[in-house]
Amino acid sequence: MGWPSLVSRRTRRTKCPSWLQARGSSRIPSRCASRRRRRLSQSHTKPVASLISVPIQNNSNFGVGPYNRTQDVLNIQPVIPSRISENWMLISRIIQPIVWQPDATQNTGGQYGIGDMNPTFFLSPAKPTKIIWGAGPAMVFPTATSTVLGQGKLSFGPSVVALVQPGHWTLGFLVNNVWSVAGSSHRPSVNQMTLQYFITYNLKKGWNINSGPIVTANWHNQAGGESADGDDTPPGGRWTVPFGGGVGRVTRLGFQPVNISANFYGNAIHPPGASSWGMRLQIALLFPKKP
């Protein structure tokens, strides 16, 4: 995922001939292919993009409940940029989860279906400086097909992203906080923060080493064993704090550019009964602008 104009500004060295840029060309010199992979790698390591990308991300969360069940969340999360003026870009980022939620009270059974949709919109300068940033609204729509797969609330809040790209590195963060404004009166209200920091080092031949853990804080979750009121979820841990990382590579499947990655994370802090570690596998379809 990426931002406008950044890659072209950083790759003003000798251009590859236009016929070498043709999709599926088998005559691309190694220096040109390597440069193109690096441009795609740098673009996709950002949480919003000047190229359209469609990440399909599977998260397996292990060790749920006393029976050590496995929760599975498949996120389909397209990123679509639109230039709305000479100076500004609007980037739409929509996350639609498909969830398997095991029954934590027994060693069989569970619920499978669609989770709550999470659209975010970033307004970002079309001509970024050294610090690249975007800001806009984050939303959560109660689209879950079961009460155990979603929050049952319509929520809104602000979202901000910022990053820098010194050399082969991409360093940054994305943070939002949403509050519920409508929904079932029988469900707890929502006040939740999500923070993702990301660190990527681009290697040769499209490979990269990366880390992008997602830290969450449920502010209505009682941090200790205090009794809950009407706005609180059941007592337990407020924070989920993972650590870890993995590897990825920009390559092609036929004519289609893709970014494939595998990551493992351990949750240093998590609510009682929640997953202690997980695995994230992702393939992102990349649709760069035509030369």
Q: How many DSSP-defined strands?
A: 15
Q: Name the overall outline.
A: globular
N-to-C span: 18 Å
Number of separate helices: 2
Beta-strand content bin: over 45%
Characterize the structure shown.
Helices cover 7% and strands 52% of the residues. The chain is built from two helices and 15 strands. The chain has helices at residues 6-10, 30-44; strands at residues 52-64, 69-76, 79-83, 88-102, 110-114, 118-125, 132-140, 153-164, 169-183, 191-202, 207-211, 214-218, 239-253, 256-269, 277-287. The protein is globular and about 50 Å long.
Keywords:
single chain, 291 residues, mainly beta, 15-stranded antiparallel sheet, 15 strands, 52% strand, globular, disordered N terminus
Give a nutshell description of this structure:
This protein is mainly beta and 291 residues long. 7% of the residues lie in helices and 52% in strands.
Strand and helix layout:
Layout: H1 6-10, H2 30-44, E1 52-64, E2 69-76, E3 79-83, E4 88-102, E5 110-114, E6 118-125, E7 132-140, E8 153-164, E9 169-183, E10 191-202, E11 207-211, E12 214-218, E13 239-253, E14 256-269, E15 277-287
Antiparallel strand pairs: 1-2, 1-15, 2-4, 3-4, 4-5, 4-6, 6-7, 7-8, 8-9, 9-10, 10-11, 10-12, 11-13, 12-13, 13-14, 14-15
